[in-house]
Amino acid sequence: MESEERYGVAVLRTLDVELTTASKVDVSRAVSEGRRKRRIRRWSRIGACAAVTAVALASVPLVAGALAGEDPSVGDSIAATAPATAPPPAPTPPTACTVSRLPIPGGHPMALVTGADPTGRLLLGRAYPERQSGAYPVVIWDNGVPRTVNVPGKDQALRDANTAGVAVGAGWHDAGPLPYVYRDGKVSVLRGVATGEAVAINEAGVIVGQGGGNPDSVPVVWRSATEPATYLPVPSGWTGNAVAVSEDGSVLALLRAKGNKSPQAYLWGPDGTGRALPKPSDGEYFRPYSIQRNWAYGVAYSEELFARGGRERSVTPVRLDVTTGEYTRLAAVSMLPSEANDSGWLVGSTDTGRAVLSAGRGMLTLPDMDNHKSATANMASTISEDGRVVAGQADDADGVIQPVVWHCQP
Amino acid sequence: MRDAWEQEYVEYVTARLPALRRLACLLCGDEHRADDIVQDAITKLYVHWDKARAATNVDAYVRMVVVRTFLDEKRLAWSRVRLFATTPDRPNWVDTGADDRTVVRAALSGLPTRQQAVLVLRFLYDLPVAEVSEILGCSEGTVKSQTHHGLVALRQVLGDRSKALAWTE
């Protein structure tokens, strides 16, 4: 067992003792209270469904099953009607990278990178004050120069930005998370959801995220920073969260499907038509991370291991051609990918604490900032479109997480 | 039909109560609060019972409801929304004479709520990063970094005691 993990088990184990008091939990009260809430929910659902239907009819031809509440069968909806587009001519893959530490404003000891724009000019992150309160100063580095952005709430983060400098994210409040957009130096709440989070934005300014609280969140799209959210149609009873938005406005999400033991990757095309994406194989499910043109990138997980709560040793980075439904297994080397760029190059981390980049020909291990004593010592989180800028986090000599950027050359 | 549906719920919840209370207690560190969390979680579970019973892994689904109730409850300034009259004592901050459990609990409760949940789920429940990210609704990268931050913070707070605890492994 890796030493950090052994430490965690040893320390946390001291908490595991038998309960000494008699239960005060009242199951019959849960039933009567639950009945009341189901009645209220049924009525509010009717209102919400009517709204979704109206939006859907106005704009897109929907899969009939989705609105009728039938679970669309997985995979067989993927017809090879359009020929697969060839991958775009890729820039020359990087062969050497250097690491440098990003400055942390405000004298805080620790910070990390949470997102970036497609060029890598803007890096998003957050700092961790000495005294943890759950609230973090959010940081944007512009060409390496940091400035602090006041995103309200706790556990705040900006997750994505476009080259115009519009960034999106969320902060947690008493009632749940609120989705935020940062533009022109100001942070404002995205409209149209009582609670929710924004996770990605494309060059056209289309923002995706989810509305609603746990465990009932549903993917939403904001067509612009000023428009209210539109709920994406999901099959009845399904919930989940958006993962990414492509340049053509397709939305990739991970849904928790009724009756399925593992999560289901789902894609809405630019016309709003949604469909379940096929599985990598029998016994595996697809956990997507990003979408570029007709390729969705992510990892294939063993469903059985997931259901049993096993270790994630079977992770395989994969690329799915969403047009043909065909999967390509990517790196032979074990890697937990964080992001892919337009050329299909992946960045992520290994379980030996190294940050890595895969640009089609094997893996490039990025230099440690200091060491890789811990399994999470160096992690690459973002990669620019030209593959020249990779950003993430790395432990310093004292094991304190620092925000870092790797500059790469062919 | 309705009766059978409800009966199934009652049987499931009754059978799982000890496990649910244990999970809630490990998360919040207080048996009374744990009961509040479980009461709230099983009410939510009733509302979502259609979805829960359809899940192949019902236990994993219910675990998610309990953890998310814990996280939500922490945001709601729990002392104001208590269901029961008795007010439990909050654990005291590190007392040099206290046993390991009290010290670790105090250290843990000083961390941000989601870090607490990540540490409990990863190291007491031995759940994989993928399932923890599923439960908390965040990326695996976040789970990994939260795990790391949480352990670093625990090491700092526990100081020398940290070495003694890890040594017993």
Key traits:
heterodimer, A: Methylamine Dehydrogenase, Chain H, 4-stranded antiparallel β-sheet, 28 strands, B: 169 residues, mainly alpha, Rna Polymerase Sigma Factor, Chain: A, Arc Repressor Mutant, subunit A, 2 domains, 75% helix
Q: Regarding CATH, which class of the largest domain in chain B?
A: Mainly Alpha
Helix/strand-derived category of chain B reads: mainly alpha
Number of strands of chain B: 0
The CATH architecture classification of the largest domain in chain B is Orthogonal Bundle
The count of helical stretches of chain A stands at 4
Outline:
The complex is a heterodimer of chains A (410) and B (169). By secondary structure, chain A is mainly beta. Helix content of chain A is 13%, strand content 39%.
Detailed description of the structure:
The complex is a heterodimer of chains A (410) and B (169). Chain A is mostly beta strands and 410 residues long. Chain A has helices at residues 3-13, 27-59, 64-68, 303-308; strands spanning 96-101, 110-116, 122-128, 138-142, 145-149, 154-161, 167-173, 176-183, 186-189, 196-201, 207-211, 218-222, 230-231, 239-245, 251-256, 264-268, 274-276, 284-292, 295-302, 316-321, 326-329, 336-340, 346-349, 355-358, 364-365, 378-383, 389-395, 401-409. Chain A has a single domain, classed as Methylamine Dehydrogenase, Chain H, CATH 2.130.10.150. In chain A, the strands form seven sheets. Chain A has a four-stranded antiparallel β-sheet, with no helix packed on it. In chain A, a hairpin with a 2-residue loop joins β18 (284-292) and β19. Chain B has two domains: 2-78, Rna Polymerase Sigma Factor, Chain: A (Orthogonal Bundle), CATH 1.10.1740; 100-168, Arc Repressor Mutant, subunit A (Orthogonal Bundle), CATH 1.10.10. Chain B is 75% helix and 0% strand. Chain B has eight helices and no strands. Chain B has helices at residues 2-28, 31-47, 49-54, 58-75, 100-109, 113-124, 129-136, 140-167. Chain B is globular.
